[in-house]
Amino acid sequence: MTSIAAKRRHPAAIAVVLLLGLIITGGLYAAFAPKDASAAPDNSQAIAAGHKLFLSNCATCHGLEAAGGDGGPSLVGVGAAAVDFQVGTGRMPLANPGVQAQHGIIVQFSTNEISQLAAYVASLAPGPAIPPADLTSGGGDIAKGGELFRVNCAMCHNFAGSGGALTRGKYAPDLMDVSGKHIYEAMLTGPESMPIFNDANLSPQDKKDIISFLMNVKTESSPGGWSLGNLGPVPEGLFAWTIGIGMMIAVAVWLGKKAA
């Protein structure tokens, strides 16, 4: 009888039993295994919403596929950080064509809508991500940040971040009213005439130190008196000529009339 049962057993029986065992084991593990709380959330809804916002507000200039269009550059590969900077500072949507996009007084989109637009552009190709809050909220080495700022940034933005003129009608903006997040994103993405400072040029800690220095400049007092906007020797010399020498001339004229 044993030999007859062995002859009737199908050759694939063992494989089928093993396969069923693996399926049952996998199902039990999937049902009872602890869930990973750090798993990345599904971003498809934000991407879809951002795509709709893009088509209705940005595609006219940047093209239906964000590959560039009528006056607008390609956004493929610029990353979420570029979108968050340009839209979050009110530079985009562009109000008026010109040599340089102006910092907007009013931001046209809500924080949630900006995140959706950034998610859509980030889905097109890899690019710089929005920096975490711990790198943009200060707390770095102020002295080192000041040194890095003077070496890399002061030639355009002034030694105290007050901005300055560039060529062909462009300018380096004042940094006193710019958030730490947008300063970090500007270093990552290089808007307008600004060069890109990636992590190979300035490490994340270096960027944090620069932001900390600028935050300190905003709050520190001027021990020398009136700072005249920290614009350097030109306004100081102009003040001396127009006000100081003007007062001296006025006093000399008054004394001359009195003597006469």
From TrEMBL:
Enzyme class, broadest EC rank: translocase
An annotated Gene Ontology molecular function: quinol-cytochrome-c reductase activity
Domain Cytochrome c, chain residue ranges per copy: 45-125, 140-218
Catalytic reactions of this protein: a quinol + 2 Fe(III)-[cytochrome c](out) = a quinone + 2 Fe(II)-[cytochrome c](out) + 2 H(+)(out)
UniProt KW keywords: Cell membrane, Electron transport, Heme, Iron, Membrane, Metal-binding, Repeat, Respiratory chain, Translocase, Transmembrane, Transmembrane helix, Transport
UniProt modification remark: Binds 2 heme c groups covalently per subunit.
Mode of membrane association: Multi-pass membrane protein
Superkingdom field: Bacteria
Pfam families: Cytochrome_CBB3
Chain positions recorded as heme c 2 binding sites: C153, C156, H157
Record-listed E.C. numbers: 7.1.1.8
Protein name according to UniProt: Cytochrome bc1 complex cytochrome c subunit
Chain sites annotated for binding heme c 1: C58, C61, H62
Description of how the protein assembles with itself and partners: The cytochrome bc1 complex is composed of a cytochrome b (QcrB), the Rieske iron-sulfur protein (QcrA) and a diheme cytochrome c (QcrC) subunit.
SUPFAM superfamilies (UniProt xref): Cytochrome c
Organism: Rudaeicoccus suwonensis
Keyword Nucleus among record annotations: no
